[in-house]
Amino acid sequence: MLPYPQIDPVAVAIGPLKIHWYGLMYLIGIGSAWLLASRRLPRFDPTWNREKLSDLVFWCAMGVIVGGRLGYVLFYDLPAYIAQPTLIFEVWKGGMSFHGGFIGVMLAAWWFGKRNNKGFFELMDFIAPFVPIGLGAGRLGNFINAELWGKPTDLPWAMVFPPFSDPAQLPRHPSQLYQFALEGVALFVILWLFSRKPRPTMAVSGLFALFYGIFRFAVEFVRMPDAQLGYLAFGWLTMGQVLCLPMIVAGLLLLWLAYRRQGRVASAH
């Protein structure tokens, strides 16, 4: 069994001001994505400057934060937030939904594309390779917060999370680290390498949706379901898995459409 590293969730405290690691992870993810996106900007559109890229990143970040929080409220714990609406603003305690943030980013990309004469999937294909950076950073934030841990296990890398998080004090899967490795590191490598060469429109977006859905669906088997929801469909699927199924289907469909369209264009020539 591995010892859980006792990390104070508060990174910096200056009087009443407290900066939490969870929030810093979002800043690290967004900042790193901006740096990598700036490297690929000339290939995406030589007429765009870094100011326009900063605008795009800002609106996508707003989509992540607002969409992620609203998604968690709607998908995971609506009754609690109806009973106490002020909880919505306590984001430093966690409670962000990837799927809500994903919808937020799609809306931001659609809106930004309309204003800048860019197609929706053109923008999404550009954005997708940078998203895993934020996903990985967010999972590290979950780990530091000692939240979203896994099921009990006797594997040698199991961890006992702090009593305030897990009163049962059982050795558990560090599922946050599994998700960091898959949704963060592996997904980034797959998308970064795939998008290094020109691909048909929708292909990068499709690959993102497909592999994120597969990775998240797989890890949910060893992750504890949200206590207020438990298992949903068929008595063994979690909310995360239910929300990932449409992503997997959409990813396959987008890849098929992308290469089917490319084939038609090639045959026409």
Automatic annotation (TrEMBL):
Residue sites binding a 1,2-diacyl-sn-glycero-3-phospho-(1'-sn-glycerol) per the record: R139
Signal sequence coordinates: none
Broad class of the protein's primary localization: membrane
Pfam families: LGT
TM regions (residue ranges): 19-36, 56-76, 96-113, 120-140, 177-194, 201-219, 231-259
Key word Transferase present: yes
Keywords of this entry: Cell membrane, Membrane, Transferase, Transmembrane, Transmembrane helix
UniProt family annotation: Belongs to the Lgt family.
Protein's recorded name: Phosphatidylglycerol--prolipoprotein diacylglyceryl transferase
